[in-house]
Amino acid sequence: MSACVPTRADEPRREEHSHEPHSPPPARRPRLAGADVSASIAVFLIALPLSLGIALATGAPLQAGLVAAAVGGLVAGRLGGAPLQVSGPAAGLTVVTAELIHQYGWRTTCAITVLAGIAQLGLGLLRVARTALAVSPAIVHGMLAGIGVTIAVAQLHIVLGGVPHSSVLDNLRELPAQLARVHPAALAVSVLTLALLVLWPRLPGRAGKLLRKVPTPLVAVAVATTTASLMGLSLPKVDLPSWSSHALAALPDGPVLGLVAAVLTITLVCSVQSLLGAVAVDKLVAGRPEQSAQVGRSDLDRELLGQGAANVVSGALGGLPIAGVAVRSSANVHAGAVSRNSTMLHGVLVVIAALLMVPILELIPLASLAALVMAVGIQMVSLHHIRTVTRHREVLVYAVTTLAVVFFGVLEGVTLGIAMAVGVALHRLTRTRITHDETEGVHHVHVRGQLTFLAVPRLSRTLHLVPQGADAVVELDGSFMDHAAYESLQDWQNTHTVHGGTVELVGRRSGVRIGEPTGPAGLQALTGVVPEESDDCRCHPWTPWRNHQCEIPEAALLRDGQPGDSQGTEADGTGGGAAPSDADGALRADGTDGTGGHGGTGEPGKVSEPSPSSGGADALAHPDAPQDNTAYASEDTGTGAATDTGAGPRAGTAAATSTGARTGAAADTGTGTGTGTGTGAATDTSRPSARQLARGISAFQRNTAPLVRGELARLAREGQQPSQLFLTCADSRLVTSMITSSGPGDLFVVRNVGNLVPLPGRESGDDSVAAAIEYAVDVLEVRSITVCGHSGCGAMQALLASEPGAAQTPLRRWLRHGEPSLERMSAEDRPWARLAGRAPADAVEQLCLTNVVQQLEHLRSHESVARALRAGELELHGMYFHVGEAQAYLLTEGHEDRVFDHVGVADLSA
Q1: pLDDT tens digits, residue range 467-487?
Q2: CA nearest 878: which of 837, 844, 848?
Q3: Percent of the chain that is helix, strand, coil (3-state, to 5)
Q4: Which of 4, 502, 718, 728 is most buried, with most CB under 10 Å away?
Q5: Mean pLDDT of the residues in the chain
Q6: Least confident stretch, 48-52, 437-441, 503-507
Q7: Which of 379, 484, 382, 476 is nearest to 432 (CA)?
């Protein structure tokens, strides 16, 4: 007798199915994308020879490299937090593993790998992954460079037909003897491998582009193996014993302290390399929008757990230690992988190769693998890393770490590197230069560096060199002052002012005077101590770049602003602070200075560098340059049909006019600031805008002008020679020289409302844009013209909201030049312009994109442009800048559907 079973409440109902009865279920997205399959094959072809080569370099059984590659793909790929990072035996672990094998034997080394994996699991559970990233990049790069040198020197012996020794010193000592007994066949195969590694990525032409898709390591090893086999060369080859005799992990045998140190070393190197690799993969993916839309950011704690699990499994199965591998991860991203399936499938392919391709693998000469690993070791000494640490003044940390790793070992090298980094940081904190000089009766005390209690005796001695009753200026160039220094400076200031002297505190980094010229309340800009009665500027050198306004005493403004001048001044851009924000408050988040001019600041915390095309690097190579974060200032924005044709300090012929009585030469500069002078009324410092204007000009004259004066003098002598005409909107948020990383004189800029180019014959009395185009093409002979639109354009919004028959104001008359763009977007027979990777957000963004395309067609109608295009002397570019995302898009060439493609970090560094 059957029982009736009640239906569970949580059972899905049949009527919830979306398809009809007896019809096939709706199609599901395939779990394995084609991009992942192709990417896994590319990674497998790179991983196979490298895994064998790294196993050879460590002295481990060659199967251990294949085991580690397979486990790295399957376990770390499945459990890790970086979906596109490929893990496996890494060159950075070669030296450590070789030392352990030499000291403890292979089976104990496997046990150490298991224990290191358990330690990584513990660290992952404690969620300390981010803490590992606190290690200075100079130490990490130095560690990798030291390992690379060790690998290269050791493998050189195999390349020459010999056997490497256990230490770098032994290898260097025996190198002359090895050169005396070179094995010709081994050297020939190694040279062939190295030649292919160097030349294959540089194959020219269309055929070369197709051939370069085959991984270079695979080509080098395959060609060397084939050549050795065809020529019948007698060489040591890969020897893969039967898997039945493969050695597994055993209980660790050795001194406890030595084993603990070994476990800590493996844990440290594996963890740091994997976490830094995950961060690097995130940066690569961010530069490829088609992948970043499908791949999330890495979970570093999960990645640490995945790496720990992989090391436990690899060590238990007799494999090498595992870490994230930069070469394979980069290949995975560039091959178009979109999920962790590519990493896991590459592990499956390694397993298949290890089981079915043994006869083929045993044909590979060891000399070819040694040459491959030696090339990897040489590449680990990166010139880019050396330039980076030199620029950040950490070359000493890098050098100490590298040499210590080479001569003492990885753990000892990293320890010495950390000690050196701490020493350098303390030295910078305590190193303060305090000088005194007198100019025209005014005593200047310059304090450069951080003011701590250690510098108080020298500060006190220098301050007492200022005579009583004298005028003094104290220039504080630093971002930190402790309480002892604050008290010492404030007490001296109070005493000096009581005896009739004046004290002016100047924050060089902030570019403004701090507090009252003769009062004691000015130290708050560096200390954060703000008296309640003070209305002074409360911005700090570390204030973020954001919309803020500050007030400074009118007395200081009267001195800075020079109200008696009959020549008005208009600041197009004021930079002047070393901090991410201009602490005088003149800069807003949108780049304006409150007066219609623009001030540009650099990226927060980033030191600006001269554009390579600027030519005047010497003028910017100032000792204080690393402390001046002023980046590329923006341009004066006209309104209506007004345009700013200034292309840098050389723009002596301005075809543009701005509103009101402001006429003159606008300046678009890129290295610190731009200035333009106009004829008008004298500056009235009683108005807030005039005070901000005077403050900005004062900051420029004090901080930026000394750094760029030599370069601007050169430009003034040579005249302007811009490389391109940049036509963009008058929107205050578009800082053209910043988003194009251009310098003084690089861009000839035309700005107007809506970045419009009137068709010839339709200007109706306003020839400013046409005149600028003709001047740029015929006189300045620019090589390219760029039309740049942007998100949230008010002109495009006004076009969409315009009503027929409305009153014809100057703005509406100007916007009629954008009506063809509106008609183009409404036409059904024309494809819409669009963004790569996503559809336009709304109708305004669609019109902004369409307007760029339409204005490029208007450009082609101008006679000078058409003539230069026919002669092949000019290129036209379309650009769209999304303000909120700080993302640039360039119009692709040769596409009928008008796609604006994403410009990523990888593209800029190529």
Answers
A1: 988 999 998 887 678 888 888
A2: 848
A3: 50, 10, 40
A4: 728
A5: 75
A6: 503-507
A7: 476
This prediction's pTM:
0.51
User: How far is Cα 552 from Cα 690, in angstroms, rounded to an integer?
Assistant: 12
For residue 108 the two structure tokens come to: 């104990």
How many residues does the structure list for the chain? Answer: 910
CA distance 430 to 452: 7
Q: Determine whether 435 is exposed, middle or buried from the number of CB atoms within 10 Å of its CB (0-12, 13-18, 19+).
A: exposed
Quickly list DSSP for 305-319.
Answer: HHHHHHHHHHHHTT-
What is d(CA 452, CA 488) in angstroms, rounded to the nearest whole number?
11
Separation of alpha carbons 351 and 515, rounded Å:
71
Q: Which of these, 270, 101, 54, 234, lies nearest to 161 by C-alpha position?
A: 234
Q: In whole angstroms, what is the distance from residue 346 CA to residue 332 CA?
A: 10
Do the bridges between strand 899-902 and strand 887-891 make them parallel or antiparallel, or are there none, so unpaired?
A: antiparallel
Determine contact, residues 631/602, Cβ cutoff 8 Å. yes
Q: Which of 493, 488, 491, 479 is nearest to 432 (CA)?
A: 479
Partner residues linked to 657 by β-bridges: 663
The CA distance from 355 to 364, in Å, is: 16
Q: Which H or E run includes 353?
A: helix 341-356
Helices and strands, number each (H, E), in the chain: 36, 16
Over the stretch 809-823, which tens digit does the pLDDT of each residue have? 888 888 888 889 988
CA angle, residues 282, 394, 402, in degrees to nearest 5: 85
- pLDDT for the residue numbered 441: 86
C-alpha span between 736 and 729 (Å, rounded): 10
Looking at the DSSP bridge assignments, the partners of residue 113 are none
Of 82-86, 248-252, 273-277, 817-821, the one with minimum mean pLDDT is 248-252
- Helix residue ranges per DSSP H, 380-506: 383-391, 395-407, 410-430, 456-463, 483-498
The tokens of 508 are what?
Answer: 């060089």
